[in-house]
UniProtKB/TrEMBL annotation:
Spans annotated as Disordered: 517-539
Compositional bias annotation for Gly residues: 519-539
UniProt cross-references to InterPro entries, sorted A to Z: DUF4178
Pfam family, one: DUF4178
Domain spans labelled DUF4178: 68-211, 306-434
Parts of the chain that traverse the membrane: none
Top-rank taxon, per record: Bacteria
Protein name in UniProt: DUF4178 domain-containing protein
Source organism per UniProt: Ideonella oryzae
Length: 539
């Protein structure tokens, strides 16, 4: 008697030989229409009992995904196996669609589904019947409200995409040439809808929901996402210094020597586009949390996880022409975890916070947004742009990348943010953090720890004690008394010590002192949200 295997195996399979190389090609489901030969990458279509070769799939872009063919899991009590993979490219990056085959029931064949993966976020979706009245995708734009299949949706993104490569067993032949339009939709019920015209008409229509890998009880994942960077190093096209990305999913990174931003989205063998940066960073300003540092933080339902700092960017708001508002700068750290994906740690003048992109959308009425039974009130609405970047990013960082940002405050320190770039709309959810929690998580001490605490503790959601207005009044009086006793140079000593003499913060402080004769009140503000491009699309 043989021991039962811990890995489920199909009870029936169909096998044939690849007509190109002769290697065996196996189908686990009679519903699968095509497969990719694992030996020669020929794309094969089933025709009765034979296979026909229709093309050759390109090599897969090796990324940091923990998923691989053959991995198994469970959803709502039913087991499944990853049997196929499609990899797509769009202007800002790449994403994967994994073909799942659920175990067959007593009276039902295996049920196909898709696990969409984009920068560590996942959505499990199922193909829907063709729409009775398919919409025309021409003219659709991010942020638009549309009616599809009798339900209201919000358009999260409209992108032009193309298939890079295919692997394994697929329910229909992949489109190997040309591009197509893909539209991501979200609604208040947390559903994700996807429309694409890759196969012309009828449109492909799928609906799904966000899932975490931990929920799927996956087995057979890759042991590690670490990649060997040997052979991936290249010379900076600006100064010639050696560069090497550490995450295979990286679309752009900065040169440690000249700080140029290099676009590697087309591969290291392509002509590498780059642009030079010129602002406070060139004067020696470095992130308060060093790139590569790992800290343990609870940034969601998964609980405490080890998050690594892989990227850093400075951003600023863009006051309206003729406005008396002063320009405000803040900092964002891109954090990475192998199975949880990416998050943003935000350092604004009113304190620290973290956010992660949402899959669904809140219900918005006027200046209020409701999400998961919580009411958020609009705090700021402004245009923002990126002024300085360091490290690696999963999107193609553009010069002066701009977004329209709306920030909301919620109960108990919760924060909500909406960012629109024209290409997509991304909602992000998180909460405020104490500076001490950031210091402890990343093991910071000395000047770095002091710099973290330069901002006041966020007042959002705090109860008891003095009122916020009284606290502000006391602070203003104390500051005025101190300013009356020192010159403008001394008044900016904290900014100079923390950020350096060439920093934006220090130069702005000096300018304020010169304009006001020694005292300035500023305007506040700052984004709670992470950068929108690439985050949350195509799930």
């Amino acid at each position: 008697m043989t021991e039962p295997s811990s890995t489920p195996r199909p009870q029936r399979a169909w096998r044939a030989l690849c007509p190109n190389c002769g290697a065996p090609v196996e189908f686990a489901s009679a519903a699968s229409a095509s497969a990719v030969c694992s030996f020669c990458r020929s794309t094969l279509v089933r025709e009765g009992e034979a296979l026909r070769r229709i093309g050759v799939s390109a090599e897969l872009f090796d990324d940091h995904s923990p998923l691989q063919l053959g991995a198994t899991g469970r959803h709502q009590g039913v087991g499944f196996t990853l049997v196929g993979r499609l990899q797509y490219r769009y202007p800002e990056g790449t994403w994967n669609e994994w073909h799942l085959l659920f175990d067959a029931g007593a009276d039902a064949p295996p049920r196909p589904a898709w696990l969409s993966e984009d920068n560590g976020a996942y959505v499990l979706s199922f193909d829907q019947p063709p729409l009775a009245e398919p919409p025309a995708l021409d003219g659709w734009f991010a942020g638009q409200r549309v009616l599809v299949d009798g339900r209201a949706w919000s358009v999260a993104s409209v992108q032009t995409a193309s298939l890079i490569a295919a692997q394994g067993e697929l329910p229909r032949p992949p489109k190997l040439q040309g591009s197509f339009t893909v539209v991501d939709l979200r609604n208040e019920r947390g559903e994700v809808g996807t429309l694409d015209d890759a196969d012309g008409t009828p449109l492909q229509w799928a609906i799904g929901r966000s899932v975490a890998l931990a929920e799927l009880a996956l087995q057979g994942l890759k042991e590690s996402s670490e990649k060997t960077v040997a052979g991936r190093s290249f010379a900076c096209p600006s100064c010639g210094a050696a560069m090497a990305p550490t995450l295979a999913s990286t679309q752009s990174l900065t040169c440690a020597q000249c700080h140029a931003v290099v676009d590697i989205s087309l591969g290291l063998g392509a002509d590498l586009a780059c642009y030079a940066q010129a602002n406070s960073g060139a004067g020696g300003l470095e992130p308060q949390i060093p790139l590569g540092r790992t800290g343990r933080l609870a940034l969601g339902a998964e609980g405490p996880l080890d998050w690594q700092v892989v990227g850093y960017q400075e951003r600023c708001d863009l006051p309206a022409p003729g406005s008396d508002d002063e320009q405000t700068f803040w900092r964002e750290y891109l954090l990475y975890h192998r199975t949880a994906g990416f998050a943003f740690l935000v350092d604004a003048e009113d304190g620290w916070s973290w956010v992660r992109p949402l899959t669904g959308v809140p219900t918005v009425r006027g200046e209020q947004a409701m999400l998961e039974g919580r009411v958020f009130r609009q705090r700021w609405r402004y245009d923002a742009k990126v002024t300085w970047v360091q490290g690696e990013f999963y999107w193609r960082v553009q010069r002066d990348e701009r977004a329209t940002v709306t920030d909301y405050d919620g109960p108990a320190g919760a924060v909500l943010s909406r960012e629109e770039t024209g290409r997509e709309v991304v909602w992000s959810l998180g909460r405020t953090l104490e500076a001490g929690a950031v210091q402890t998580a990343f093991g910071l001490s000395g000047p770095a720890a002091a710099a973290l605490r330069r901002d006041a503790t966020p007042l959002t959601g705090k109860g008891g004690g003095l009122s916020q207005g009284l606290i502000i009044l006391i602070v203003v009086v104390v500051v005025m008394l101190l300013m009356s006793r020192c010159g403008s140079e001394d008044a900016c000593s904290d900014e100079r010590a923390t950020f350096g003499p060439a920093s934006t913060e220090y130069q702005q402080c000096l300018a304020r002192q010169q304009r006001s004769g020694g005292f300035s009140t500023g305007t506040g503000g700052g984004s709670f949200g992470g950068f929108s491009t690439g985050g949350g699309g195509h799930k």
